[in-house]
């Protein structure tokens, strides 16, 4: 069965793929937030978390604080670099892909995954106890999901493709309204550039 997500972002035309990747990167976090607002979603989003790693120092912001229906709470980081390094990170295939992701914010994310009680997490200035970490990737192979969860003690690895599939399958109107609005904005831009 063809993977529509890979087909959408990976073609024989590199300029096209990089353009689509950049446009998608502008709003792809909003898709997760729309999913979290749905009454049937597995998670709600409490907002962007700020993490102070063990030993103190600078706080780092991540993308989401996801709370499950049983009130377990997780910091969440999304990596959706669909065209990066010749599509190297389009699909999470193995844990080694995470080994290459550096930077203090992602290191703080990994620290929370391994030992959440050692990090201070706050949301909107209020301290927030967390139970671990969730990774959101553009597309996820099951082997990659299992390997990442095992190596980094990540609670869950979500696929943005699967989130979109669920929004479509459930005919979630806020999602389609959001896409229609972004389409109109782009059409307005292109019309303006063509007419001056």
What does this protein structure show overall?
- With 196 residues, the chain is of the alpha/beta class.
- The chain has one domain (4-188).
- Helices cover 47% and strands 21% of the residues.
- The protein contains eight helices and eleven strands.
- The chain has helices at 4-9, 14-37, 84-87, 96-99, 104-114, 142-152, 160-169, 173-195, and strands at residues 43-45, 49-52, 60-61, 64-68, 73-79, 91-92, 120-123, 126-127, 132-137, 139-140, 156-159.
- It has a five-stranded mixed β-sheet, sandwiched between helices. The chain has a four-stranded antiparallel β-sheet with strand order 3-2-7-8, covered by helices on one side.
- Helix 2 (14-37) crosses helix 7 (160-169).
- The longest helix is centred in the first third of the chain and has 24 residues, at 14-37.
- It is globular and about 55 Å long.
- The model has no long low-confidence stretch (mean pLDDT 95).
Radius of gyration: 18 Å
Q: Helix-strand pattern, N to C?
A: HHEEEEEHEHHEEEEHEHH
Overall body shape:
globular
Oligomer: single chain
Integer count of domains: 1
Q: Averaged pLDDT, please? A: 95
Structural class computed from helices and strand pairing: alpha/beta
Question: Using DSSP, what is the number of strands?
Answer: 11
User: Biggest sheet, in brief?
Assistant: 5 strands, mixed
- Uncertain regions: pLDDT < 50 for 5+ in a row? none
Beta-strand content: 15-25%
Distance between the termini: 44 Å
Percent helix, as a range, is 40-55%
Main sheet strand line-up: 1-4-5-9-11
**How large is the count of helical segments?**
8
């Amino acid at each position: 069965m063809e993977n529509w997500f890979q087909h959408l972002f990976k073609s024989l035309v590199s300029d096209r793929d990089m353009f689509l990747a950049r446009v998608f990167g502008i709003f792809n976090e909003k898709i997760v937030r729309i999913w979290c607002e749905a009454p049937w979603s597995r998670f709600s989003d409490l907002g962007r978390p700020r993490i102070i790693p063990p030993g103190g120092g600078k706080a780092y912001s991540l993308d989401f604080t996801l709370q499950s229906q049983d009130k377990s709470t997780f910091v969440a980081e999304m990596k959706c670099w669909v065209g990066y390094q010749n599509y190297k990170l389009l699909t999470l295939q193995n844990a080694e892909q995470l080994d290459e992701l550096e930077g203090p914010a992602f290191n703080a994310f990994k620290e929370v995954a391994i030992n959440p009680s050692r990090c201070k997490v706050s949301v909107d200035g209020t301290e927030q106890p967390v139970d671990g970490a969730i990774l959101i990737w553009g597309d996820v192979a099951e082997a990659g999901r299992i390997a990442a969860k095992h190596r980094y003690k990540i609670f869950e690895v979500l696929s943005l493709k699967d989130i979109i599939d669920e929004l479509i399958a459930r005919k979630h109107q806020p999602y389609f309204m959001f896409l229609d609005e972004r389409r109109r904005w782009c059409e307005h831009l292109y019309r303006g550039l063509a007419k001056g």
